Amino acid sequence: MEGILISSQTEAEELKIKFLGNLYANICFRSDISKAHANQLIKTANNLSFQQFCILQLFNEKWTKTIQFLDPQISRFEKWEISAIDIISETRDLQQKGLISIPATRDGGDNSAPISLINISITKIGRLFCEMLSLEEIDSDSLNKMNDLTSIRD
Question: Which branch of life, at top level (predicted)?
């Protein structure tokens, strides 16, 4: 049992390596990123899971699609609700880190309650994070698996 847990943790961390490398490389070429900001980006990236990278990139794609078409309906998530507890936890963590914005709800502050994603958005910091890690390079299979759980993409 312990071997299985260690193996799954190692595999998940290995998926992040390419994107952490992208972050380090991109920091070197961005004069607008201060040392303090670079350290914060690195710390945040190290603390996120590959699953969170996928969630964030799906929101980034949704934001890009909304901007490109300037269609207010594209930004609506009326039929989508996150109900899987692990995805709720990962999404709330992204919110706590300021990478996505979720409007206040009337669930009494229950952070384990399903999340209705009407008007949810990726923040400016979240978009920069996607750019710096080059999350658009996440393989389509990983993004499609996450989208199957969340329906972020239409």
Answer: Bacteria
Q: Residue 38 has what pLDDT? A: 95
- 120, with CB counted inside 10 A (0-12, 13-18, 19+), is buried
125, pLDDT greater than 70 = yes
Parent domain of 71: 2-150
- Mean pLDDT of the chain, nearest integer: 82
Ranking 14-18, 57-61, 83-87, 107-111 by mean pLDDT, the lowest is 107-111
Cβ neighbours of residue 98 closer than 8 Å, sequence gap 6 or more: 123, 125, 126
Query: Is residue 20 a contact partner of residue 41, using CB atoms and an 8 Å limit?
Result: no
Counted domains in the chain:
1
Which amino acid is residue 9, in one-letter code? Answer: Q
Question: Which segments of the chain are extended strands (E)?
Answer: 81-82, 100-101, 115-116, 121-122
